[in-house]
Amino acid sequence: MPDEPDTQPLPGDGEEPRPTEPQPQPDEPAQPPRPRLTRSSTDSLIGGVAGGIGKHLGVDPLAIRITFVILTFAGGLGLLAYLACLVLLPSDDPEAEPLQWGLWRTLGAGLLAVAAIAILVPNWLWGPELGILLIAGVILYVLIRVVRDDGASHVSGIAARIAIGIVLLALSVGGFAAAAAGSALGGGIAVAGLVIACGVGLVGGAFRGGARWLIGPALVLSLPLAAVAATDLDLRGTWGDRTFTPTTLQEVERGYDMGAGSMRVDLRDVEFPPGRTTLPLELGAGEIQVLVPDDLCVLTDATVRMGAVDGGNDEQGGVDLDIVDRRAVVPGTPTVRLDVDLGLGAVRVGDYFTDRHGPGEWHLDDTTGYDPAVACAGTP
Amino acid sequence: MSARPGFDPASLVSGVIVILLGLVLLLDQADVIDMRWDYMLPAVLGAAGGILLACGLTGPRRRG
After folding, report:
1. Residue B9, SS3?
2. Residue B52 Cα, gap to closest chain A Cα (Å)
3. Considering only residues 10 to 49 of chain B, which have any Cβ-Cβ distance to chain A shorter than 8 Å?
4. Which helix (H) or strand (E) holds A348?
5. CA A225, CA B24: separation in Å to the nearest integer?
6. Are A5 and A90 in contact (CB under 8 A)?
7. What's the rounded Cα separation, in Å, for the pair A187 and A258?
8. What's the pLDDT tens digit per position in A87-115?
9. Which DSSP category does A212 fall into?
10. What is the pTM of this model?
11. Are strands A256-266 and A239-244 parallel, antiparallel or unpaired?
12. Contact B22 A195 (CB under 8 A)
């Protein structure tokens, strides 16, 4: 550990009281002196820096330590700051008074520290990682405080409830997500089996004093499975953003199938014959966009469990949509019938697009509407 | 509602409800039936309501 930089005598590991307390000025109001900013010899994990700062500021040293750790992930700032304090701060008196800190002062100091960092270092960690680090810090603080539970204080009681709430919430969210993902990826039968097992456990436990705790897991499993089942969500298959540009009639008739994401189908390069051609489109969750030439007659037949369908000049939304386009078509007009099976999301048909991210990454424009009524009435 | 020591009627009722809900979900996943929102929502809400009602009527859990 580095020596102190000042000219005072070197204490022997903080055993000697330091006789150089600053004397209050005569014109200062009488109030308890704030402890000097020193390294603590009684609250020390490495060099007593966090303990000393916490004592000086009146905040929990644990919060200081976690702040140092968090800042260490920001380009090593925390490590540098700790080393600087280790070098610059003198050691203290082991007979120092007990720590006085409070939750709000700790929270305020943490927010001020974040604000100061944001001001001093522009654009520092203004991404999702900052929020993640802060949440991780708060959770770590609460958990350690609960584990220590020094004195069963009011703060410890609050911290215990918060910690239990966070753990239960995390378990519920994780269970929901896992059950939903498992169901949508083809594991619905297994999840349903687990729900039944919970029910059997409840019935069996009823004769042994009760097993109501199984209600929670049963709901956590059954609610997302019910949503997936009602939505008919099937996420098996390709994920992501895909643009399909068929050039032949065979490609069109084979259709396209994706699990989740954005499915864009560009029909402008296909020479459609007179009569009806069917294009099957299947997507678990996401958006289907079909780009068509403005003189192509498009009939949109769609089964959508939850979402919206915009076939060109109108939009329908809601749950359990079964849409059959019964539009009258002039005989001999080249016609494409979209046979859409969508679990959750939207279907859009249009003839005008804008480039979002470059060539091939087009997006149907809302401002101009493709009108199938005109196209299906025959070439003007 | 009276109950024997060590017997928790709320667990029994809840268990039966959960089993029925699980069976419905199992049949849907096995493509035997096709549950849409029109049916699924009442089923889930009914199950949740039944469980809450059972727990509320029987009071705190008895330990045998």
Report:
1. helix
2. 10
3. 10-12, 14-23, 25-26, 28-30, 34-38, 40-41, 43-44, 47-48
4. strand A334-350
5. 11
6. no
7. 18
8. 667 777 655 544 444 555 556 556 656 65
9. G
10. 0.53
11. parallel
12. yes
